[in-house]
Amino acid sequence: MLDNNKEIIKVDNIRRDFKVGDEVVHALRGVSFAIHDGEFVTIMGTSGSGKSTLLNILGCLDTPTAGEYYLDGLAVRKMSKNERAWMRNRKIGFVFQNYNLLPKTTALENVELPLLYNSKISSKERRERAEKALKAVELGDRLYHKSNQMSGGQMQRVAIARALVNDPVIILADEATGNLDTRTSFAILTLFQELHARGRTIIFVTHNPDLANYSSRNIVLRDGKVVSDTVNPNIQSARATYETLPAPEE
Amino acid sequence: MNFFNLFKIALKALANNKMRGFLTMLGIIIGVASVITMLAIGQGSKQSIKSQISEMGSNMIMIFPGNMERGGVRQSSDDQQTMKVSDYEAIRDDAKFVSYVSPQVSSSGQFINGNNNYPSSVQGITQDYLEIRKLKVAEGEIFTDEDIKTAAKVCILGQTVVDNLFTNGEDPIGRVVRFNKIPFTVIGVLQEKGANSMGQDQDDIVLAPYTTVMKRLLAIDYIQGLFCSALDEDMSDEAQDEITEILRAQHKLKDGEEDNFTIRSQQELSEMMNSTSDMMTILLACIAGISLLVGGIGIMNIMYVSVTERTREIGLRMSIGAKGRDVLMQFLIESVIISVLGGIIGVILGVVASELVKAIAHWPISIQPYSVILSFAVCTITGVFFGWYPAKKAANLDPIEAIRYE
Ligand SMILES: Nc1ncnc2c1ncn2[C@@H]1O[C@H](COP(=O)(O)OP(=O)(O)OP(=O)(O)O)[C@@H](O)[C@H]1O
Ligand SMILES: [Mg+2]
Description:
The structure holds two protein chains of two kinds. Chain A is 32% helix and 27% strand. Chain A is an alpha/beta fold. In chain A, α3 (107-116) packs parallel to α5 (152-164) and α4 crosses α5 (152-164). The N and C termini of chain A lie far apart (40 Å). The relative contact order of chain A is 0.18. By secondary structure, chain B is α+β, with helices and mostly antiparallel strands. Chain B is 57% helix and 17% strand. Chain B is built from 14 helices and ten strands. Chain B has helices at 3-15, 18-56, 68-71, 85-94, 128-132, 145-150, 159-165, 210-218, 236-250, 266-309, 311-319, 324-361, 369-395, 399-404, and strands spanning 60-65, 98-113, 116-125, 137-140, 154-157, 176-179, 182-190, 206-209, 225-230, 261-265. A six-stranded mixed β-barrel of chain B has the order 2-3-8-5-7-6. In chain B, a hairpin with a 2-residue loop joins β2 and β3 (116-125). The longest helix of chain B is centred in the last third of the chain and has 44 residues, at 266-309. The two termini of chain B are 27 Å apart. The model of chain B has no long low-confidence stretch (mean pLDDT 87). Classes of the chains: A alpha/beta, B alpha+beta. The interface between A and B is medium-sized, with 26 and 23 residues. Residues 18, 20, 25, 27, 45, 47-53, 207 of chain A line the site of adenosine-5'-triphosphate.
């Protein structure tokens, strides 16, 4: 949609090899693309095609064996461990398939967590921002619920709030709806679309080919290579689909 | 990440696992409490022995017949009769490092005053003996040189003896008491000294001229021992050398012949006692230290388990921006909290246990401030030391692998 915007992500011919015993697994064999501010990109591909490997590199959790990666204009490949930790803390919001909330911990505390590792933020500001993020995912009334007292959909909303709270340049989601039923998946997808509508840049890795219709751009990987990269001119509304799905019986 | 936040995180992690935290702490608690109690007992007994020895006399040197180094036990009765009054006179006249000297002979028996009788013993000595043993005459007076010369039948009583013989509270001075049928005139009463720290009554004592005890009670011509005071605390060794020289000359011992007497000094005694009780303290401290070590290993064990258990949490923290250092500090602070909190509880428990030992077993105890500070320092070091490896392990985890950990 907003084509002439600033480049958030630029990957240039990145490769990632894993040594397994004597063999070398080429998980990524030269991937290049650029993602601009305000895009909602889905990444698809069969199992083992390298989606997670790519996302880990984009999320500064891993470094490519070769090739360059620029996040928000900064070259990540030569960064130290601590610098990459800083990037994760300030520039990136991660959403995982299995939520990864801290056990026995309230929604509010879970969302505050990234800000705890940013010493510039006071405890007052931390709290305010966490509350705001939880309100944005419609959990304003569940601030003090513990993670084990919530449903999967609610936990994923908390995880999304946590990814939002540090005001990242990009949100990365790896199979964020993979553990949820169809209806809840669409509720979460609706949330992502709303965030996108408010200007967030999102990369959403998924197995489900249908979800390509709900993003602004779709990248398909096969054997560690990009095989298709298409812009979706007419984005379907996840909310509309959600409303067609039968409500669970009371 | 500031320190306060890390501290909060660590506290929360501990609060989530209270029982485990407490059990881990228990090792430290027991370790610290035993260090403090053991040192309190060790030092308490050391101090009590020390004060006991200094109560005994001033720079006292005791000489006994027979060579105790040789066989440990006194040998034949011949050996016991080698010391004569002339030995006493030689030391009195010639020893420069000796300020006071008194022969000593003693006879035990029954004191009788009217209907009261009391079993005790009479120490035959000179006036110097009072200086050597730190005794004072409270009423009446000490016997004179004339009394010694004439072997006068006079005596000075300790308070316990007075209480037992003069039950109506009469003034004992000038009265005659019988000891083994021989009448003694009481010329003085000693100042009360009370029980020593071992509980022995120091007032159960009767003093008389040594000549009286030798001639009239025992009918012997030898003395049973000599008591001396060194001129000064630091001159104890010189005094002993001098006494040895004089006695060897007196006894006409040839070079190479062993002494036929044994010298014991108060200083030597206190050094011996000190080294024994130091040894005991070290031993006790070692045992206690080992339990502290075991407690530390307990911390390490639990921290390892905790790191493994919370691998996912660590991965998550890293993925949202925690640096290796933050994770390291989090776990380190956790283990230090366990050990320091355990240390605080241990100190309290140790003090309470020491007081209980004092109250129930009546052992002398002395709680050492240094042992409190020491166990605290050791606790913190234990926490850091034993927490380090698990924390380092956590900090070195790969975030991707950690977050995928099942
Ligand atoms: N740490 C690793 N060590 C060795 N090989 C790895 C490692 N991580 C990934 N691989 C390999 O890299 C390839 C890509 O894996 P990746 O996890 O990126 O696939 P994916 O597209 O996310 O699959 P799925 O849809 O099942 O999640 C696979 O062949 C995998 O075996
Ligand atoms: Mg994957």
